[in-house]
Amino acid sequence: MVRRAFELLTFLRQSIRDFYHTGAVLPSSKSLAAEMVSEIPAGCGPVNILEVGAGTGVFSRAIIERVGRGEIDLCEINPRFASLLRKRLEKDPSFKKPGVTVRVYELDARLLETGRKYDHIVSGLPMNGFDAVAVREFFDLFARLLKPGGTLSYFEYIGVRAVKMPFSGKSERRRLRRVGAVVRRMQRRYQYKCRKVLSNFPPAYARHLRFDGGPEASPARGSTERDPA
């Protein structure tokens, strides 16, 4: 309970100070975390996993619990979140597991150079908060870092672009439309699964992509979103 309260307080403070990189007012729920790691086979290993935008470690903990053996790289640009993650590696039992090595990288993911390819990438980045160029750069990065057959799992809040549109100025509407175009193109080409998670605030879609052999022009299984933005 104390740990959860501390996480919440830390997240709220950083959301106020740096909403651009945080992109949310509350940490993700356990239900969303469970869906985000669902494409990682339970007990798998050895495996290389990258989490981008690790925040307070909600997804990180779920990843560590999920794997059997392997290496997990956590990338977080926010110094306070990165510091919290390092402290958790030292003191939090849920971040310690025999056979699992966890590292924290405090930097923009686009500058990450580990020399490793990954079986799975889990992204907590607020895609709808960036411009279209940055969103495309992140997707290109994920495609380069994944091994053949590897998966990318990311989430976005349901209908967020459509909700923002009526309350935004001309330049912001243009940005949202361009981001939406990039995201939908990636979904059409590479998404193979999408799950709605209502027990999160706000409710979210967890999207799973595979960049080799993606189902271009095919409807993604379980995807029901029709975001006009």
CATH topology: Rossmann fold
- Second rung of CATH, namely the architecture: 3-Layer(aba) Sandwich
User: N-to-C terminal Cα separation, in Å?
Assistant: 39 Å
The portion of residues forming beta strands comes to 15-25%
- Give the averaged pLDDT, no decimals: 87
The total beta strand count reads: 7
Tertiary shape: globular
Structural class: alpha/beta
- How would you write the strand order of the largest sheet? 3-2-1-4-5-7-6
- Structural Rg: 17 Å
What does this molecule look like?
With 229 residues, the chain is of the alpha/beta class. It has a single domain, classed as Rossmann fold, CATH 3.40.50.150. Helices cover 39% and strands 21% of the residues. It has helices at 2-17, 19-22, 30-36, 58-66, 79-91, 132-145, 160-164, 170-190; strands at residues 47-52, 70-75, 100-105, 118-123, 146-157, 191-197, 204-209. Strands 3-2-1-4-5-7-6 form a 7-stranded mixed β-sheet. Strand 1, helix 4 and strand 2 (70-75) form a beta-alpha-beta unit. The chain is globular, with a radius of gyration of 17 Å.
List keywords for this structure.
seven-stranded mixed beta sheet, 21% strand, alpha/beta, 229 residues, Rossmann fold
Question: Mind sketching the topology for me?
Answer:
Elements: H1 2-17, H2 19-22, H3 30-36, E1 47-52, H4 58-66, E2 70-75, H5 79-91, E3 100-105, E4 118-123, H6 132-145, E5 146-157, H7 160-164, H8 170-190, E6 191-197, E7 204-209
Parallel strand pairs: 1-2, 1-4, 2-3, 4-5
Antiparallel strand pairs: 5-7, 6-7
